[in-house]
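User: structure tokens for AAA family ATPase, please.
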Amino acid sequence: MSRDTPIDKQRRSTDVSSDDSRSSQHGGERRVVTALCYDLIGSTNLFNLMDIEDYQDMIAAFQQAARQAITTHSGVVRVEAGDGGVALFPIELGPRDAASAAIRAGVGIVKACQRLARELDRDDLRVRVGVATSVALIRDAQLQNWIHEPVTGAALALATRLEAAAEADSVLVSEETRNLAGRSHAFVPEGTRMLKGFSEPENVWRAIGHRRELDRFHAFGRLDGTFVGRVAELDRIEKAWDAAVGGKGQVLAITGQAGIGKSRLLRQARRMIHAQPARSLFFQCLPGGFRSTLHPLVNSFSQRRSDAADGGRLTVDAVAAQFARHGVEDPEVIGIFSHLLGADGRNEAFSDSSPKSIQKSARQALSKVLSVICGQTPLVIAVEDIHWIDPTSEYLLREAARLVPTLPALLIVTSRENRHASLFDEGEPEHISLGPLDHDETRLAIAARWPSHRQEALPQLLEVSERISGGVPLFIEEICQWAFETAAEDAMSVPANASRNHVSAFEGILNSRLEHLGSARDVARAGAVAGDRFTVSLLRPLLPEASRKSLLHAAETLCESGFLTRVRAHGGIAYGFRHALIQETIYNGLLKTQRRLLHRRLFMAANSNRAIAGWLDAGALAEHAEAAGLPEHAVSSFMRAGMEHASRSAMVEARHHLERALALCETMPNGVSDELHLSVLTVLGPLLTATVGPNSTPARILYEKGVEIARRQPKEDQPKWFPLYWGWWLTGQNFMEMHSRARKVQAMLSGIADREIELQVNHSIWAIEFNVGRQGEAQKAIRAGLALYDDEAAKASRNVFGGHDAKVCGLGQLALSLWLTGHTEESSKALADMVAFVDRIAHMPSKSHSLDTEAVSAFYRNDHARLIEISGRMGDFAKKHELQSLSALAMLFRGWATAHVENLSRGHEIFRAGLALLRELGTVADLPIYLYMHATMLGQARKYETAIEVATEAIREANATGHGYWLAELHRRRALLLSCAKVEEPALLPDLRTAIVIAQEQGAVALLHRSQRSAKELGLAGEL
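Assistant: Done. Predicted tokens:
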């Protein structure tokens, strides 16, 4: 590329750590400028080796990728010549951010070139990048397009020389660039170089990567000064760490009021710990985080962009890379965390797993992660502000606390409230409760932070400053900052309201400081409404009368004043409050009308243009809409948030959002919000039945309300709300009530010309008619329903109604019913049809349902050899898809078969383990049958008394719930057990008579034959 950039040969070393904007006598302003230069290596050789058109296409592709890397990081290409170019980065970013952005752009160019080389299969395609910073003279720095104005300074020339000195695929930076970006990037020293055109040697550094986002105490080099006090607390932390290093992990909880110094203590502890070899994991909970699944982990991903339309969505590759940095490459760990984080490209099969199965997988993954990391070096895990933690993170934190005592690890959490007391299951953690600094410590802290140019005022204000601060470190900082900002000596008086309590004094000082900041005060207020993060682009619609330039200036002023910190995010700069208490105090000081207006402006802007605040999820938007007085928008957003969290198995968070939407609906006038109300109920209902059970009070109440509202809707709208009718049937308290509701739904929706609804009505009828023992009605409903089956409609319905395909269910239920009624051959055919069909549709939940049906059929027929084979397939399928409930059923049926053909004791043990797991999971669907199996095996073990008790419990359960189709067999089994226990014959007759009567009433020919045969074997046939 051309090397004709002017070089300042008389360059002198200049301190560029602050923005020098003095005007020059020649016109223009002195500003700190960062420049980037890039160049392909050996492009002439490439030209000679390649076809001219291929070469031209390659250069065009390279330049496009380079431009994108530069513009993505706010840079502007100043010169583009052939195989290289020069770029500048806006002075509006500030020197530190501009330097950091230029380095990220340079690394991006290298990666883009490597990617292009792979695509073209060329190992000779390499690039060099140089980045330099210097003071420069800009003709008119106030112009919006100043970057195209003449710029006189060393940065452009130095960047060119650094690029020429760089190795292939590397980024060399100047000393000043490295000093500015040292907290955001890692560097390797490359020694001192004499560069052409420069009289003095230059210390050169190679940029090797972007560090993780820094916490609020280190943002842009901003430290909170001398650490004062807390000697005893640090000593306790040090002892806990020593114990952890020795293999006895510890859990510490640091608690105290807002601003008391929990984060400072934690920062000091981490600094102390890192004097030794150790690995650290730091997670920050944020205000409002309860609504956002795993938000402390999500925010630890440095590549998330603050300005991306999708909020910087995570990908599976990013999740894998994050874990790989800690030596964890287990695909199962990556898979489950990608699911929980909602990463793009995740395995969607996890969505079909039960919440308890997901929790189990997450526990196992966390255990693997901690074991791998602690196997390398002792580990400290810090989780800040757990009073804002989300339920999924809390669940994993509990598990981490349970695992840590067995590892060389120290877990430290901080909290405002005494949250730790109920958070940890495995005993109370060591508790460090922080109070205010004592008298001497408070005075020392004030003296350490008091501004140097106000030292003469310190003696007269020390006592009152101590009194109004109350020894709270954050309050001390604000008092000292107020003293720093006070312009004149006669203004050095404590705010009038400082005599009240410490919190009121804090509010007064904040207000006093803001009053002196002019228009920056409005930005602080808008930011307080925006939340934990905001950008200048977001501030513009919140404060439409302000220009972008004035907003940027105000935000920077607030940063310099200690109200805000810059929050690094890939691709842009965002701002956040230095402490949550500052944000809360400013927000609480707003009038209700001001709050509502700002919330409304924010919601309308972000809802219409997601790129403006892409980090806000649907739940956050919903809260802004609610605060803005836009209930319908809030309900819609809460619904979206609920569905998104449910897809990630974050059921607690999902329920929180949906119940909030429901509460808002109930504040609207009847009729006005019916459709919205029904929509929320339709989404929330399945979540409640999945998490708290179909027989739970919340689920029953929800569906009763849903049907009540749905019934007053026009007839043509009824199909839309059929899921509520289905849920109302499903949440009946027992089979008898479910039977009644199924028939009522059929009557309510009669005349609705919708084949799919008619099919699903029959679906509910055949399921319940079978269970109550009315086999003729069940078979009739099955045949009527299957005649309506539509392949296309089924693709959606099989995920909504019953969680399985209606045809698979119908064929399976028909096979079982036909066997009960004595049609064995027809039953076998229906069973074979079911298996063939479920394999064709390849729907995992339906396959699980069909395996259960196959097992039950083999159980009915006493085909133990086949049952062993089927239970083996069930177990394999359950393991592959992580289906705990199916795994439990496989154990249950395998145990039953094993007890009959191999070993009674071992089989019974396997059976009981399966039944225990079903009870733990809350998925015991056919308890009377399982108790029948249990009683039978007890009888085979000659434990007759216990067996009779279990059989009696099964009969009682069946009668109470209406679970009637196996009731005849239960009575027959109890009669046989009574006989084995040598009970007199007359005592057997009631059970045998009942078994025969029930079988006859139900048309259960197979069960009738069994009862008659048993009566004959017992010699009692003539007495029945």
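User: Anything notable?

Assistant: The radius of gyration is 36 Å.
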